Amino acid sequence: MRFIRFRKWLEHFAMWRIDLYIYEMAHHRGGPATELCVGFTTRIIEEAARRDAQHIGIHTATLKKWATGSGKASKEQMMKKAELIWGVVPDTHDIADALLLLAYGMVHYAPTAEISQVGAERL
């Protein structure tokens, strides 16, 4: 059911033109968590192919190093950086990671995109 719900969630974005799907790469440690991560990643790749878009997985350490200068940054450091860039306090570290992935993608793959007045000054 998780995969079906995820597919439906991805389909909600059909009204927008999406050129790039950027996601945090899964760490494969085996077991059910790995199965889920591989399944979600596969669905992202499938959706990108259906929409003739690119997909890029970003390693966790790469995102942390870009955001904080350290590939071993804490969740709290990542949340503070997301708040600094976007001007909002993320409710969870997962939301902070998503906001940072968005900023990373905009800086590296869409440099002419506007993040926000606050965010652009702080990147």
Please give a handful of descriptors for the protein shown.
123 residues; 2 strands
Order of helices and strands: HEHEHHHH
- Main β-sheet, in a few words? 2 strands, parallel
Total number of distinct structural domains: 2
Summed up, the helix count is: 6
Global mean pLDDT: 89
- How many beta strands in the DSSP annotation? 2
Query: Which of globular, elongated, flat, extended, rod-shaped describes the shape?
Result: globular
| Terminal CA distance | 38 Å
Rounded radius of gyration (Å): 15 Å
Helix content: 55-70%
Order of strands, main sheet, comes to: 1-2
**Low-confidence segments:** none
Class from helix and strand fractions = mainly alpha
**Percentage of residues in strands:** 5-15%
Give a verbal description of the structure.
- It is a single chain.
- With 123 residues, the chain is mostly helical.
- It folds into two domains: 1-57; 59-123, no CATH class.
- It has helices spanning 2-11, 31-50, 60-68, 75-86, 93-109, 117-122; strands at residues 20-24, 54-58.
- It has a two-stranded parallel sheet with strand order 1-2.
- α2 links the parallel β1 and β2 (54-58).
- α1 runs parallel beside α2 and α4 (75-86) packs across α5.
- It is globular and about 35 Å long.
- It starts with a helix and ends with a helix.
